[in-house]
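Record type: monomer structure entry
Structure origin: computed from sequence
Chain ID: A
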Amino acid sequence: MEKVDLYKVLEISKEASQDEIRRSYRRLARKFHPDANPGDRQAEERFKEIQHAYEVLSKPEKRREYDEGPRTFFGSQGAGQGRPGGADFEDISDLLGGFGNLGDIFGRTANTTQGAQAKGENITVNVRLSFKDALNGVTTRVGVPVEEACGECRGTGAAPGTTPLTCPECGGRGVQSRDQGFFALSTPCSRCGGEGRIIEKPCTVCGGNGRVRKSRQVKVRIPAGAREGMKVRIPGRGSAGRRGGPAGDLYVVTRVEKHPVFGRRGDDFVVEVPVSFVEAVLGAQIEVPRPGGGTVRVRLPAGTQDGKQFRVRGAGAPRAKTDGGEKGDLIVRVGVVVPKKLKRREREILEALAEERDEDVREDLFKKVGS
C-alpha cells in the first residue's frame, strides 16, 4: 500500500513541534468533525484520516517509526484496536488535553453531543398587501404558527415535579461509539434516540416534546417599495429552540395585489398611455399619472410611433433595500389611438393628406420579400 503523508493530512511540516501538531489537529477536528458536517461523507473520511495522523504523530515513538519507514501506518495492524494502539472518540478527548469530549470542541455542553441545545425551526408566512401599502410601506400584524416552549413543564418535557434523567446507555452523550478498526464511528444512542436523556414521566400537556403549537401575532414593518415575493426576516420570532436553544427566525413573504394601470418591472413601473393620432403626428406635451398619485409631464416628439417608450427618472417605486430614498423609473409606453368614426370634414382632410403624400408604406416590406 502506498504510504500516506500524515504530515500533509495534518497540514504541517515534518519539523513541526508537538504543540504545532496538537494545534493543527484541534483546528482540523473542529472543521471536519461529522457533527459539524452532517451527511457529508467526504468530511467524515477526512476526519478519519486526521484522527489516524494525530494518533501516530502525537506519540514520539510512533512518529519516529513512521519517519524511518518504510511500512505504512494508514490501516496498520494494531490501529483502532482500542487503547493504546487505536483512538476512539473518547481517546481523542484525552489527546486534546483539556477539551473534555468532542462535544466541547464545538462549544457544546459537557457530556452531550446529539443532546445539545438546538435552534428552533425558521417559519415562513405570507402577507397580502394592497398596491398602495406595498408602494408606501406599512406596519402590519401576521399570524404565525410556531412551536413555543411548553408552559406546563417549562420546555423540559417532563411532568411538573420531575426532571429528565441522563441516559444510562450513552451517559448523556446522545451517541454510542462503534469500533471500526483504527477509528470509531458514533451513531445515535438506541436508548434515548440521540437526546442524551430519558423522560420517565412525560408532561401531559406537550407529551414530553417540551414544545406546544400555538398561533402568535407578530408585528412586521414592510418597507416602502416592497415587490411581489420579497422576504422580510425577523430574527428570533420563529419556533422556540429545544433544550434551551435559541429560537428560529421568521420570514414574511409579500404578496402584492396587481394594479389595473401600472405594471411592475423591478423597481420600475410601466404604464400604457393612449395618444391621439394627431398628438403622435404633430408632437405634444401630455400628462401621465404617477404610481403614488399626481401626474408627470412627458414630451412627445413629432412622428411618435405606436409602442414608443419614454423613461421618467425617479418616478417609480422606492428601492426597498436602500436608505437614501432612491426610486426606480416610470416607463411610459405610447399607444396610438386610431379613431373608429370620422366626421365628413375630418375625412376630407385625411383624403387630401393621403393624396398629397402619395406614399406606399409597404414598399420596403415587399422589397425584403423579393430579395
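Annotation 1: The first strand starts at residue 123 and ends at 129.
Annotation 2: Residues 262-341 form a domain with the HSP40/DNAj peptide-binding domain fold (CATH 2.60.260.20).
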